[in-house]
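In this supplementary section we document a worked example of the pipeline. Step one takes a protein sequence of length 132 as its only input; no multiple sequence alignment statistics are reported here. Step two produces a three-dimensional model, which step three serialises into structure tokens for compact storage. The input and output of this example are shown verbatim.
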Amino acid sequence: MKKAAKISKEVEAILKPYNEEIKDYIKIVQDKSDADIKRYTGALSEEFKGHVRAVSEQYGDLQKDISGIKKTLDNHSETLASHTEMIGKLAVDMEIVKTDIEFIKGGMKKKVDYDEFLRLERRVSAIESRTR
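The serialised model returned by step three reads:
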């Protein structure tokens, strides 16, 4: 075991300058990668903020659109209500017209048609002319 410990110390002595260089290199690479990571994280943060801004603008526009849609629907509801009222009035008026037409039809059955009246007038004239 002493021999292995001695070799280990010898190897350690030989590698010591290299170990220092490796530690320095690792420190440089770590510093550089830390800077890269910070820059990349900053870029991701900016991109995320841009997406959030876009969504918030769309949401703001959506709120305006929803408000406009609600106003339009309210106007359509008012128009529909007035049209429903007008249709109701027209239905009542139409019932009155139907009643009047039925009354007129009943009266027409008792009256003479104009053509029939002319024929009757000619007959009466003919009979009068014969009797004179």
